[in-house]
Amino acid sequence: MPPGFDLIIMIVAMIALFYFMIIRPQRKRMQQHQEMQQQLVPGARVLLTSGMFGTVVHVGERQLIVELAPGAEVTVLKGNVARTANPDEEEFEFDDAPADVLSTEPVITDEEFQAMYGSDEQADTEPSADVTDPNRNEDPK
User: Fold this and answer.
1) Are 46 and 81 in contact (CB under 8 A)?
2) HSE (CB half, 13 Å, CA atoms) of 69?
3) Cα 136 to Cα 97: distance, rounded to the nearest angstrom
């Protein structure tokens, strides 16, 4: 063998190892992610890269409209979809019915509010503060 041949074989082996350990698996993951993006359809549950779950409402060329909760829709790039969601991962279920939330705060009438804080007419009679800036140059040039 000519001198330095071992070094050339070692360099080629390192490049091949680098390719098969790092570059090839990354390309495979990218291809799988692109295929997943192409298969998104309205109604699919997805996990966004921000960690939020949502339901795909509309699919465009580069963007999706995702409903995060009933009535809360956001537009995201397809690349922001980390993966489709597994039903096992989801802890909560949403339906379109409004939640029955009872207020623990007491409700007061308009008359009670006006008695406590005064009427709107009283607020209008107070002089307004001067909001002009004393450093502002008013001379037009």
Assistant:
1) yes
2) 5
3) 55
Q: Which residues lie closer than 8 Å to 63 by C-beta, 6 or more apart?
A: 75, 76, 77, 78
Residue-wise pLDDT for 32-59, tens only, equals: 888 888 889 999 999 999 999 999 999 9
Q: Compute φ and ψ for 23, nearest 5 degrees.
A: -70, -50
**Three-class DSSP category at 56:** strand
The end-to-end CA distance of the chain, in Å, is: 87
**If you classify domain 8-84 with CATH, what class do you get?**
mainly beta
Helix ranges (H only) for 1-141 are 5-18, 24-38, 110-117, 120-125
Dist CA 39 CA 54 (whole Å):
16
Average pLDDT over residues 120-133: 58
pLDDT at 82 over 70: yes
* pLDDT computed for residue 73 by the predictor: 94
Nearest 5°: the CA angle 81, 87, 91 is 95
Q: How confident is the model over 54-82, as a mean pLDDT? A: 92
pLDDT band at 4 (very low <50, low <70, confident <90, very high): confident
